[in-house]
Amino acid sequence: MGLLLTSGKSVQALLKRDIAYLIALHCVAHRAERGLVDSLKELHKLKALHQNLKWLYKHYKFSPKALHELRLVAEALEEKVLKPTNLAGIVCESYVVFVTYFQDLLSTERRPKPSPKVRGRVYRILTFLMNYDNVLFSYLMRDTFEALSELSLNFQKDSLTVCDSMEALDTCSLKLVDLQFEPTEGGDQEVIDAVSETALFRGTKLKYVNEGQILFLRKKVIDVLTHLEKRFQDLQKGSVPSKCAIFDPSQWPSDRQKLAGCLWQTILC
After folding, report:
1. What is the SS3 string spanning the chain?
2. Which band of pLDDT confidence, cut at 50, 70 and 90, is reported for residue 100?
3. How much is the pLDDT for 7?
């Protein structure tokens, strides 16, 4: 249960009036969400990605005609496309369809021409999609969000304990650290290989290609992890995990006498 921890009239404060030894913990699922919001505020690359995804979603949400035209393009290219709702579907799976459709919208031969407002939005989106750095970063963020999504699902389990939440956070952290050093199959390595071999990514010539840029972009994953871990500092360091470790059987001594002594010591503390 998430608690309001800042106000003097919060649930925590009211409960502590009657239960002085109460240990109040803010909702771990909400902490993870706030950590990602912190990343959006401070990481320029992630903020730009978020903005372009919002433009894409807006372009189709309010225009059934645009969505119909997108599906016609997909049929002509013999590709599958769904209504754009997430990063994986837009950049990673239906990239060719979106680029082709937006290029058609900006074509001088198109009739009728879109409004200046729509053309401006389409130009910004297309510029983003044809930038080498942005495509690489999108793949990295797709894998990052998959790890964060798994973390969020673990945090929403009814049976979750503090020890479980810390274990889930550690697992997620290891996955994000791996992304910094290990290319993922069907991920950023796909972009690097395609551009290095053919100078094209799925038939599209990307701009501002810099093959050394991947090292810089992978460090951005760690920046996301840093913001996430800041939200869990009181669980990672301090008395809360040690007080809750008694409920984690994996932490119990295997020897019965040591187990009894450990439990007795915990009770005395």
Report:
1. CCCCCCCCCCHHHHHHHHCCCCCCCCCHHHHHHHHHHHHHHHCHHHHHHHHHHHHHHHHHHCCHHHHHHHHHHHHHCCCCCCCCCCHHHHHHHCHHHHHHHHHHHCCCCCCCCCCHHHHHHHHHHHHHHCEHHHHHHHHHHHHHHHHHHHHHHHHCCCCCCHHHHHHHHHHHHHHHHHHHHCCCCCCHHHHHHHHHHHCCECCECCECCCCCHHHHHHHHHHHHHHHHHHCCHHHHCCHHHHHHHHHCHHHCCCCHHHHHHHHHHHHHC
2. very high
3. 47
Tokens 């239960």, residue? 19
Confidence grade of residue 124 (pLDDT, cut at 50, 70, 90): very high
**Structure confidence at residue 4 as a pLDDT band (50, 70, 90):** very low
Of the candidates 203, 188, 197, 190, the residue with the CA atom closest to the CA atom of residue 136: 188
pTM, 2 dp: 0.73
Question: How does residue 87 score in pLDDT terms, banded at 50, 70 and 90?
Answer: low
Q: What residues contact residue 143 under an 8 Å CB cut-off, 6+ apart?
A: 179, 184, 187, 188
How far is 219 from 124, CA to CA, in rounded Å?
A: 25
What count of Cα atoms within 13 Å lies in the side-chain half-sphere of residue 229? Answer: 16
Residue pLDDT, tens place only, 31-70: 888 888 888 777 888 888 888 888 888 888 888 888 899 8
The token pair at 110 is: 């198109």
Distance CA 264, CA 269 (A): 9
Listed by start position, the domains of the chain span: 28-229
Tokens of 90: 């837009």
φ/ψ (deg, to 5) at 147 = -65, -40
